Amino acid sequence: MFTFCTDPEALDGLAWLACYLTTGKHMAFYGAFATVLVLLAVTAPAALAFGLGGAMAARSAVPPLRWLGKGYIAVVRGVPDIAFFLFFVIALDQGFEWLRHQVKCPDWPDPVRQGTDFLVCDAAKLPLGNSPQWVHEIYGFALAVLTFAIVFGAFAASVLYGAMRAVPRAQVETAEAYGMSRRQAFRRVVLPQMWSYALPGLGNLWMVLIKATPLLFLLGVEDIVYWARELGAAKTPRFSDYPHGDWRIWYFLALLVFYLGFTRVSEIAIERLTRRLNRGQATAAGESMRRAEMPGGPAA
Amino acid sequence: MSCAATIADYALRAVGIGERLLPRSDFTLCQQFTLIGSGLIWNVYFGIVALLTGFALATLVAIGKASDRRLARKPAEWFVFVFRGSPLFIQFFFAYFAFLALKQVAPWTEALSSAWAGALVVLFLNTAAYSGEIFYGALRSVPKGDQEAAEAYGITGWTKFRRIDWPTMLRLAWPAYTNEAIFLFHATTLVFFTGFPARQQQGDALYYANYFADKTFNPFVPYPILAGYFILLTLAIIGAMGLIGRRLNRHLPGDVARRPRFLGQVMR
């Protein structure tokens, strides 16, 4: 990186460290933090979409749809999520390949599953065998996002389901009295109002989501845990210009501090958002804010 | 090989009793059920021991956090912040390498770098932080009237805490604590996927489920089996905690003593 880094042998102390921390692999390590942030940015709305779908299905008047929604919530919450993280990645991969296999190679003679092998025709491989490396990486990342969205969607669904039920019943009745259909009342009254009830649960879920991101490396994405293990492990002079002992404890300490900082910042942001959403609401929190803002009221 | 023979060979495989080698080919459904069930011994062990020891520390943390004295409050606050603010996964990694380093300095701590002791310490501290926060919240919502009534009868200090505050705190915290117990048991599956190595392929239920999924390249058999076991385990926890909850609420009129609800967050 720096010009004085050309000969690692001649360095010591801070100069050595400055050069060591700017090697290509370290740049990949710093980039992995961006991977985690991108995953969070993409997953949060995706999980919310799954959650909204799940919650609406669980509220549905059609029994099979309702059972599907409730079953989705109950099963995903009853089973450790790491099991789902390990399961979905191969299940989704095989599922997509099987679907493409059905479409692209309809006259394939052999069964797809032969003993312990899963075989699809070459045209159905995902990504295609001859595609460049970045396609493989994007595909792996997309699978990880989908997995996170399915798992956290169930938790979001249970939060949103509760929030939709917390919207005062009288309001829905009023809407219906004004001639709105069930669907209209849901879209115009329940949906805009439920957010202030859902926010504590969603905020909690966001914290849990942040703390689930180190599982990424289990899904085959080169994330910060992967690099911390790689870079921290003992390096011998034969393999590296910058040999050092087993430094994994320091790398994991850095990750620990990163996550502590990240969750702390999120906590503060969620607190602000809660205050903002509670303003003017006919709830205990909203009422106490109104009182606090009144002239001569109790100091907040 | 009949299913009964498989069960005899593998039922206690996870704790090192029975057949030494895992099946390598021609996996039967019976083998998968037996081995994954065998691994569940570890999940139950980690869960129960961490829950019982964590309970004691959690009470102390809650008292510390509610204390007026800065010297008691600050350590409790930092303890909760560190263990609730960082992923359990990273805590396991960090602890493993910290214990490896500790072993170099003090050889008597060698056991800590093995999963059965080291991971247990992490789970213990982790659950203590989460339950401590739950208990702290409950301690702060102990009704003022109850405390005044106790003081009016001359019950103060330690006696008041033991006979009024603590039981009321437990009663209020119980539904949330039930969730914490469920998620603790779910969190035990992380142990063998972190730095802590599985010695002689003795792992927990997820370890074996993952083994079968890797060998057969078919996730659709072992993971549903695992899911079934965990749903049963979750139901058992809800049942057991419900019994304790009913005992804690036995003096209240019927409708208040309803079963704790299963809500809340997932993993850390």
TrEMBL record, chain A:
Membrane topology term: Multi-pass membrane protein
Source species of the chain: Jannaschia ovalis
Cross-referenced InterPro entries: ABC_transp_permease_HisMQ, MetI-like, MetI-like_sf
Protein name, UniProt field: ABC transporter permease subunit
Organism domain of life: Bacteria
Alphabetical UniProt keywords: Membrane, Transmembrane, Transmembrane helix, Transport
Cellular compartment(s): Cell membrane
Parts of the chain that traverse the membrane: 27-50, 71-92, 138-161, 189-209, 249-270
SUPFAM superfamilies linked: MetI-like (SSF161098)
One matching Pfam family: BPD_transp_1
UniProtKB/TrEMBL annotation, chain B:
The keyword Transmembrane helix appears for this protein: yes
Bilayer disposition of the protein: Multi-pass membrane protein
UniProt-annotated location(s): Cell inner membrane; Cell membrane
Alphabetical UniProt keywords: Amino-acid transport, Cell membrane, Membrane, Transmembrane, Transmembrane helix, Transport
Main subcellular localisation: membrane
Residue ranges of domain ABC transmembrane type-1 in the record: 40-244
Family label: Belongs to the binding-protein-dependent transport system permease family. HisMQ subfamily.
NCBIfam families found in the cross-reference section: HEQRo_perm_3TM
Name of the protein in its database record: ABC transporter permease subunit
Biological source species: Jannaschia ovalis
